[in-house]
Amino acid sequence: MDATSPAQSRAMAAESAVVRRYVHRYGPLAWALAATPGVDGARTWHYWWHAHLLHVLRDAQEHRPDPRRARLLRALHRGVTVCTLGRWTTPFYDDVAWMTLALQRYDAHDRRLDRLTRRLDEAIDPAVGALPWAVDSALYNAPANGPAAIALASSAHRGSAVDLDAWVAATLDDPATGLVRDGVEHGVVRPDLWTYNQGVAIGSALALAEAAPDADAREAHEARAASLVRAVARWCAPDDDLFPAAGGGDGGLFAGILARYLAEAALWFADDASSEAHRPVADVARRLVHRNAAALWDGRRGGSFPADPRRPARAAGDDLDLSVQVGAWITLEAEVALERALTS
């Protein structure tokens, strides 16, 4: 696909703004600030935000290969190594799962992956059948179990991925909406609905479908992914297909994560010639990604994107967070992935 196509041009603009405003290089190392200079806590190093920065940079490298970006990826990889003292882990299993996914995307042969996937697998509580949010936490939630299921699906621990996905479906699926609720703590379900929890549930279903041992298992996972895409569409329909906003901070990444896995669903179901019922699912997923990417682009001001696609970007507040800008960039790269599929 032409690197100057509309989708590519928009993604390039998002990438340029993030790298220019947030990423700092120190010799062979690089890392990103949490916000633009002058904002409280701007110099904080966020582990899971860096996981998504690595991931989206790798997406960009696939979409627009460039040796300069490859060097930046290596520098950021070294930066994570230094900032984590070589461990690449934290006490928060959701963060570890995201970093594992980023590392799988960056280099599927990285020697750290066996250690990270083993850490996730060994942390699953057999009494619950799920991964806690953090070490010694009583919260078992979708933000930890969803990305962990995706990460484990292509590892030696695929059986655990199947179990985690099934636990989310049985415990957190909301029978009224078909959406995934946030988590359960001390036996009480947290009813909050967040965009990224829908995204990782779609992603884990597709990851398990890809590695399914037989046709029946594949169809079951596909059916779950399709059901979730439809539920997201119903959820967003009253607001002109726009994703619910979650503000700045960690919430700045939520909608971008949903966009990434909706794009995966659009590509998966568009390629599934065996089922005509899946074509409409691909169309719905594609429409949601396009609608939100366009709204973010329309709200861009001064090179920055808004935390909420319903308004223009602002020169203060949440829109200054790295997470918000990376989240918008993820959405724009998701649109590139869809455009490439159409033109390849």
UniProtKB/TrEMBL annotation:
Which InterPro entries did the record assign?
6-hairpin_glycosidase_sf, Glyco_hydro_76, MUG_Protein
Protein name (database record): Glycoside hydrolase family 76 protein
- Enumerate the Gene3D superfamilies for this protein: 1.50.10.20
Where is the chain membrane-spanning? Answer: none
Q: Can the keyword Ubl conjugation be found in this entry's annotation? A: no
Q: Keyword annotations for this protein?
A: Hydrolase
> What species is given as this protein's source?
Microbacterium galbum
Q: Which GO terms describe its molecular function?
A: hydrolase activity
Q: What Pfam families does the entry give?
A: Glyco_hydro_76
